[in-house]
UniProtKB/TrEMBL annotation:
InterPro entries linked to this entry: A_deaminase_dom, Ado/ade_deaminase, Metal_Hydrolase
Entry keyword Zinc: yes
Residue ranges of every copy of the Adenosine deaminase domain listed in the record: 22-345
Upper lineage: Bacteria, Bacillati, Actinomycetota, Actinomycetes, Kitasatosporales
GO molecular function: hydrolase activity
Name the UniProt record assigns to this protein: Adenosine deaminase
Domain of life: Bacteria
Cofactor(s) of this protein: Zn(2+)
Alphabetized UniProt keyword annotations: Hydrolase, Metal-binding, Zinc
Family: Belongs to the metallo-dependent hydrolases superfamily. Adenosine and AMP deaminases family.
The organism of origin for this protein: Streptomyces justiciae
Amino acid sequence: MTDRLIDPSIPRDLHAFIASLPKAELHVHHVGSASPRIVSELAARHADSKVPSDLEALADYFTFTDFAHFIEVYLSVVDLIRTPEDVRLLTYEVARDLARQQVRYAELTITPFSSTRRGIDEKAFMEAIEDARKAAEAEFGTVLRWCFDIPGEAGLVSAEETARLATDDRLRPEGLVSFGLGGPEIGVPRPQFKPYFDRAIAAGLRSVPHAGETTGPETVWDALTHLRAERIGHGTNSFQDPKLLAHLAEERIPLEVCPTSNIATRAVRTLDEHPIKEFVKAGIVVTINSDDPPMFGTDLNNEYAVAARLLDLDERGLAELAKNAVEASFLDEPGKSRIKDEIDTYTEAWLAP
Ligand SMILES: Nc1ncnc2c1ncn2[C@@H]1O[C@H](CCC(=O)c2cccc(C(=O)O)c2)[C@@H](O)[C@H]1O
Ligand SMILES: [Zn+2]
């Protein structure tokens, strides 16, 4: 973690505890994880792009006026990924960054439609991500799994294409575990995606749409009812509906909370106004995630530090939060037990006199 990310209001040794705490990351986007170094390398390679290659200019470029502006900038980075080798490099480097933060397991959200429609061959795309996944697991010990998401605003063509890529046995990558829906929510009603989620679920994939990030609790209800969501991406505005909070708690539907993202995209005004406390109070399973870390000037460790401050957590509280993510993941039971045991052993050793 860089000093820029050290929150002075929480003790330094808690930062150190977080940095070495074994973790799982459930909500992080593939392209949105491209580090400034990778973005600037790709921008320099593709000189026709409007993305700056200078690191300082990049920080400015990643300052967003609202969610629509964020998506516009995001798509300009998508435009930099043009070959299967770009895809492989990005995936492998993202795994390296996760491993450095002691992330043992990550479900990476990938939008294959954005790459195939830009002309990357679909088979070569799948091979690139799988090749990087296997290399990363062997070299860094970080296990990666994929969530393929529909970029909702790109319409039902993108839904059809994403469902096809996720369910065709000749293409579907081994690491694929779930099916999602991302992008803007305003003007993109969730129920229209039901047939595509039905197909994905029938093919054994788990349902993890974004909902309630930029629209209200009714979008979260839609995601639950029509898309049979098993976890909710963000779910931020659920706090406006006490019945929804009770339902999420009772059904043990985890929320993938990404605090800094919500500030960067202006979905929430300030961290102190973030509803994470309400979620915990309501008994909801809260998981902490980073979404598009370099674009939001954060990383998963910093998100845990933010959570420690907002929820007033000590080491044991942070360990419980880390175990929530493992439990809410789509890892098999032996895999979950292994990481949870590692978290417990690490925490007890840290706290031993
Ligand atoms: N916080 C977030 N909340 C929601 N989504 C987020 C977030 N962060 C990253 N995303 C990603 O942004 C993509 C959006 C892509 C999109 O809208 C679009 C529209 C039209 C054409 C094309 C194209 O490729 O041609 C793409 C989503 O699929 C998702 O994976
Ligand atoms: Zn997201």
